[in-house]
Design goal:
The protein has 16 helices and two strands. It is mostly helical and 457 residues long. The protein has one domain (21-454).
Length: 457
């Protein structure tokens, strides 16, 4: 394997076969991070509301421990992307203290994004096998079924109901503005964006398993497909609607590149159409669809439909940040200042001290040079993943390609200042790394060429 063919290189693994294999414990820690991402909000709202603040960073010690264990064993990946991000992360603490806001806890909280979560995706990709990615995908499908039922309950329940309690047991509710008197449900997450990210993530695996049904129970797959369809109107989220559309476009591209998937896509489409037809006859689904349609029409009038969601929110924020980079101070206002926690520690309230857009926040916190450096690292890694996933697609391996459909939405431009969004970005990065590894047992339909071997760990 060459450095040019993979986002990072690794040292040789120590000989296995020992009585105690540390890989198992590290993998369990990664699974703990996986589950906490989905249920951390539930702990903060319903189970341990009194510990809502410390639970905000409950995943950080796990990620730090995994990083340390992988580094201690001498098998931590080496990558220019990783090196660059760590250097910027360390420097950002000093520039924040001497040239920015001057608050050490805020600086550490902001720098942990670059020094813990970004390296963790590399450590995760190093320790997980391709088979682990498929296992996580199966678990996601199982979780999606009760999650859909939960958001349906939240959708139809008043904000004062227990199921809608906010962080710390807030009785005002965790729902966000929606349409027709209904609010956007957060599911088990602390905020509604977690619900949208979750079902977008699930949709990638739903599509993958429809094209590779041997990996999943058919009943679970059908139920999870129904859960994703239900989640679109219940979420009242245009972003979820468009992101699932992007996943479908990736699936079509995959089918075009590999004729054997064409029939499966047609079959899956027929099943999904029947599921939609059945759900559309149910009153609860009709009400949710009406609210979603109303939100869609009102937002389209004010923001411009597809251009508003993908142009202004995604690409527009990038362009604005790049244009304003030359107007920022060289060292920025200080890392962490653009986060909600940073705002609370500095001013006593939650407000956007720098920018609501991710790129604007990064440039505002770190300054033109380091801010643009973080942006280019994120773009470079996303571009590398795109190249490698497309090469895997040529060998009839659709897994990295479908994960990429979600990764390209959250890795370059995802809101890393928000813990849930940061967690999804970290998780998809680690799973993309792992999905690019050669499977222990190669499926017969995949042709293993010299090029494919070069892309595996």
């Amino acid at each position: 394997m060459t450095q040019d063919n993979f986002p990072y290189t690794i040292n040789r693994l120590p000989t296995k076969g020992l009585k105690s294999d540390p890989d198992d414990l590290i993998k369990k820690a990664i699974w703990a991070y996986f589950f906490l991402l989905f249920f951390e909000g539930a702990l903060r709202k319903w189970v341990l509301p009194g510990l809502a603040t410390p639970l905000l960073v409950v995943r950080d010690p796990i990620a730090l421990w995994v990083i340390y264990q992988v580094w201690q064993r001498g098998i931590f990946p080496r990558s220019p992307y990783l090196n660059g991000m760590v250097v910027i992360g360390v420097l950002s603490i000093f520039t924040a203290l001497f040239f920015g806001h001057g608050n050490l806890p805020v600086a550490i909280y902001g720098a942990r994004i670059l020094l813990i979560h970004f390296p963790f995706m590399f450590a995760m990709g190093r320790m997980l096998e391709r088979e682990d990615v498929i296992k996580m995908g199966k678990v996601l499908l199982y979780i999606s079924i009760p999650m859909a039922l939960l958001i349906a309950m939240q959708f139809y329940s008043p904000q004062g109901a227990w199921v809608n309690r906010g962080i710390g047991g807030d009785m005002e509710g965790a729902g966000f503005s929606g349409a027709m008197g209904f609010r956007r449900p957060p599911g088990t997450f602390s905020f509604t964006n977690g619900n949208s990210l979750f079902f977008n993530f699930v949709a990638c695996f739903v599509i993958y398993f429809w094209l590779n049904p041997k990996y999943i129970n058919k009943i679970v797959l059908i139920a999870a497909s129904g859960a994703v369809i239900m989640a679109i109107p219940l979420s009242i989220s245009r972003g979820l609607f468009f992101s699932i559309g992007i996943a479908l476009v990736f699936a079509v591209i995959g089918a075009v590149r590999n004729a054997k998937y064409t029939g499966k896509i047609i079959g899956a489409g027929m099943v999904l159409f029947l599921a939609l037809a059945v759900l559309s006859q149910m009153e609860f689904f009709q009400t949710a669809t009406a609210a979603f349609t109303n939100r869609f029409e009102v937002a389209n009038d004010s923001e411009g439909g597809l251009q508003g969601v993908l142009g202004d929110r995604y690409l527009g924020g990038m362009v604005t940040a790049l244009k304003s980079a030359t107007d920022q101070s060289f060292f920025g206002f200080g890392v962490g200042m653009g986060t909600n926690v940073g705002s609370l520690l500095l001013t006593g309230g939650k407000t956007f001290l720098i920018s609501e857009g991710e790129w604007g926040r990064v440039v505002g916190e770190l300054g033109a040079v380091m801010g643009l450096g973080v942006i280019f690292i994120r773009l470079g890694l996303a571009f590398k993943f795109t190249i490698l996933a497309f090469k895997k697609l040529q060998n009839a391996d659709l897994l990295p390609w479908m994960l990429l459909s979600f990764g390209l939405l959250v890795m370059p431009q995802g809101q890393w200042a928000q813990p849930t969004s940061l967690g999804f970005s970290t998780l998809i990065g680690g799973l993309l790394f792992a999905s690019l590894r050669r499977p222990k047992i190669v499926p017969p339909e995949q042709k293993i060429s010299n090029q494919t071997v070069a892309l595996t760990l």
